[in-house]
Write a structure and sequence with these properties.
Structural class of chain B: alpha/beta
Strand content of chain B: 15-25%
Radius of gyration of chain A: 18 Å
Radius of gyration of chain B: 23 Å
Number of helices of chain A: 9
Largest interface: A-B, 21 and 25 residues
Helix content of chain B: 25-40%
Distance between the termini of chain A: 18 Å
Distance between the termini of chain B: 37 Å
Strand order of the largest sheet of chain A: 1-2-4-6-7-8-9-10-11-12
CATH superfamily of the largest domain in chain B: Aldolase class I
CATH class of the largest domain in chain B: Alpha Beta
Order of helices and strands of chain A: HHEEHEEHEEEEHHHEEHHEE
Oligomer: heterodimer
Shape of chain B: globular
Strand content of chain A: 25-35%
Structural class of chain A: alpha+beta
CATH topology of the largest domain in chain B: TIM Barrel
CATH architecture of the largest domain in chain B: Alpha-Beta Barrel
Largest sheet of chain A: 10 strands, antiparallel, barrel
Shape of chain A: globular
Amino acid sequence: MPELRRSAAGDRYFDYCLQPYRPRRPPEGKLRADNLLLHTLELAGLRDAAWPALEALIEGLGRDMVVWGAKHDGERLFFELYVYDPQKEDPRATVSGLTELLAPHLRILPRVRETVPYMMVSFDLDAEILASGEVRELNLYLTGTDAHEGRSYVVREDRRELANTYRFLRPKPEIDTVLGLLRSSLFLDYEDPRVLAEVMPPELFACKRVCVAKKRLRDGVYYSGIDVDALLWFLERRGWPRSLVDFTRAHAAELDHLYFDVGLDFEMRGAEARATKTSFYGTI
Amino acid sequence: MQSYKGRFEPTRFEDLTVTVDFHCHSACRFCIVQEGMNLYKGVPFERFEQAVDENGKAPRYRRVTFTGGEVTLEKRLFDYLRVARERGGFEHIRLQTNGRRLADRAFAERLVEAGVDEFFVSLHGPDAATQDYISQRKGSFDEAWAGLTNLRALGVTIMTNTVLTTLNVDHLARIVDTVAPLEPARMEWWNYLPMEDKADERGLIAPLSRLGPAMIAALDRAETRGVDCAVKYVPRCALGRHGHLIDNTQPDVVIVEEFYDLYPKFACLYEAKCEHGEACLGLTHEYVHKYGWETDRLVPTPRTTPWREPEDGLAFGSDDPRGARDAAPSADHPAWRALVDGVAEPLGAELEGLLLDRRRCTFRFRAGEASVDVVLTKRSEDRPALARSRSFDLSYRNLVLPEGAAAERATLVKVVEAAVRAIAQRDGGAMLLDERKGLVGEDALRRRARERRK
């Protein structure tokens, strides 16, 4: 495995919404979260292919300004990169800017009218995209009626469609709203009390923010601001590759200054809720 | 955010518990240190002496409790007792025991003569059939009962401990009937903690649908018979009108560090909504995975004060069995309070509280609606600190300022400065805070077991 990337004086600490946080412990000499991304890319056999595009983003947008998501559907590992600019302050953090920034490595095909009030754009990164060198699909995120609500759209060259709506909440003080949103579901049946425990396990309930997403074909829940112990529980429980679990456990003491964010998509399989896709996030 | 539920450190720092041995002649089906039995070492005698002498110099603990494993099997038990009695400055010496060896009247008498004045005896069933099944030792109930009878005759303080599982949940009120004639100072009811069997393959976690009504019936019976009770690790609202009997505090325990890695974490969906969210632990994670969040069965009491994610465990009352209701609160640590006595008031502020645990002493100062914590940790030159006294690193945190509270902010800045100066002056270097909860390293485990693990 390549050399580990350690925290440096200029590092900043952001959650997956690029909201800053104060590290849980003094970060000096500890590991950056992107080691987990690079390890997972390595497991997917994509590290070398993905690195030039990642490097271009880091150089173009700044260290720690790109959010990455590593995703697992039980079989396949794939990735998503997210670029935020809610205040439209940085022309490089737009679809147009990214298209130019990544041109030597990836061709972003969809075009977007830059007057659309999107606050974030993201795209997937997997073996097929890296092999073709073409990003055919973008995700645009627009704020809803208040800052804690949002909608995401899938944008292709020839088509745009609503992908999901979501809402951020503080899990403990806003538990009634959280429960109401979760239970308002076409896909999940909360009759069996263990379904709620599966969707909102106590290990993840101890987070800073929860995001309830209503997607086209399933329900999603995201937990933001969990510690490395909870991340380890999540990776093990959700069947992430043993190598990643072992890596995380071996370096847990060097990752304990960080908060992590995780997401789960649920469907019913018989009487049980099953997480069909899970993800975790950091910045690079 | 992790709250104290996540960390499980709601600790009562009046009591020091010393784990002297990890052998046992019973084999209780719910044993929470089953895998640690015969593996963990007890506290080395030298380490115990150090703790006793520290308390002799700077009193922090009113009581020392010896436990194990089964404490009465410890070969050097009377040496431990002698040191505790002669050098520790403790008001009480307690044994936590299955009571079986106390059936030997001479042995029980010798313990009392050695200074033990409180006995905390396990009784998990109302009769031999239940208790012997749980302990997996025929005759264990009769022995424990004979032991309790001996203690009663010797006039010492008796407390009982019942671990709540599916194995005895239907017998709780009858246990009260069995124990009440002994006139115990207190009966304690500890909900089973799944420490090693996380998936509850043994089927020991009792669902609230059974445990709640059974516990209420037992507490009703105890009230009728005039027996004081305390309940641990059961959601407060599951106890109905007996909710005030919840006491989740634990003494400061010197034990193998690994023990704490196994300790369950707790959660409750209604933590922020409930008036008792800070004191009630809720449900273990293992319970939630097995039975769900109990969204309908748990009933939060509406809050009268705003909820704030706690960063520290809270101060809890005394568990002195002889004067529980009237005893000084555990937050009243005079030696520690003296470090900042008189600092806040001349500046228009007040010392709102003092939280002391093994690793940290926190003074919370208040000026109007604003507050700030001054935190003492063990002195270490390796990390930054606002200031250092002879024993401590000093820092501040949790500055809570309502909007427009500029005057209060200025006051609290002065209070922090004054507190730091006072502590630096008054700390003579004999007060101690530790950084680790327990015994660590190779000395904490038995050689034979370590080798077996390789």
